[in-house]
Amino acid sequence: ESVVTEQYNLVAGKYPEAADELALVVNKNSTLSDAVLASYYIDLFASEMKDGKYKKNYYTYAEILSDKTDYGKFFLLSPDQYFGEKQERGSAEGYIPQTKGLVDYLCENKPLNEVNRNLVEQIVGKNLGGLEKSLTCYSGEGKGYPLKIVGIFKLKDDTQYGMFSATPICYTDALKTKILSDAAASQVFKDQTATPDKSVMLSVDSDGNYYNANLTTEKAKKSALSLIGWSNVPTAIKFYPKTIKDKDYLLDYLDAWNEGKSGDDIMQYTDNVGFIIELVRGVVEIINAVLIALTSIALLVAVIMMAIITYISVIERTREIGILRAMGARKKDVARLFITETGIIGFMAGVIGLILNLIAVLPLNALFYSITMVKGFAFLSWWNILAVLVISTLLTIFAGLIPSLSAGKKDPVKALRSE
After folding, report:
1. pLDDT tens, 70-95?
2. Which residue in 109, 24, 115 sits closest to 73, CA to CA?
């Protein structure tokens, strides 16, 4: 519960605890997609009508939680209720799910009133990606274990991805235990375990003939039991590492587990975060390449401009150079003077750039934190600062090297006579 409440707010009802209690999970806008509503056989538009038109296009939390409406009520069928009695079809004998298509169910088993007609039109007329063909209904009403939505969870504004993103209807561990126990006690389960090498479910070939499929592998046998509703093998486990380092450790562990194994013994996994990181890394590499090109051009222009500025400074201070040489300064002393000045300029430029960078990082980190909840997205380490200062100083010294050396080579007599 503590993990759930870290990511979601309980906006209505209570936290489900019993086997017959469900939770509904909505997104940050308190909405569900039309495909989700249709998959749970709920009218895509609120079914309250006036003068042949819908009065509203939403459901309230109270309507879903109310005992007077059917929106939040479901019935869990046991395997025997779902598959019915064993049937004989030709030379084959087995079970067939007691279901029919949703549209047929709505049109045949209920009066085709205005609400049902609208629901049929919504499912068939709207583009639901063929969902209307895959939806099936159980034909025996009034049977099953009643379930009810007792709480509604909403993803918190500061949470980007919730643990219940895969399904809007969530149930308790107590319900899972009941499902397994009911399946184990069912007749269809007993028949399947009595003939583990052959499926008790009837299949149909391309000619319309019924047959019982052979189960030749352990995986096929487990799948047959899972189809009935009984399985003690998890189909998937989700991990939520706190850091990238933890994620890498987990992947290394799984890789070590798979070493030397083959077939069904291999643990298949999907690294969603790694996929996103690789995708982002590819984009970042492209951006880096563009930035490096632009920076290289900027540095080249800066070096040229620094050389020009140093050359202009030498020309304007020709008389000063002559005085220094007349007072006994050597050629290399004059050259060192200008080299030192360009180095100081480069160092100060690096300091100013770092200060502006550190100021820009504050609002940038605040912006990224509001979007991604990641702290310290942009930062400067000590070696970044050191590298910037060293590179900035060396570049300016290199840029002013030729003008500085030319200053030391000037003739002191001609330099003194210059204006």
Report:
1. 778 888 888 888 888 888 888 888 89
2. 24
Whole-structure pTM value: 0.57
Report the 10 Å Cβ neighbour count for 413. 10
Q: Could you read off the pLDDT of 167-178 as tens digits, one per residue?
A: 788 999 999 999
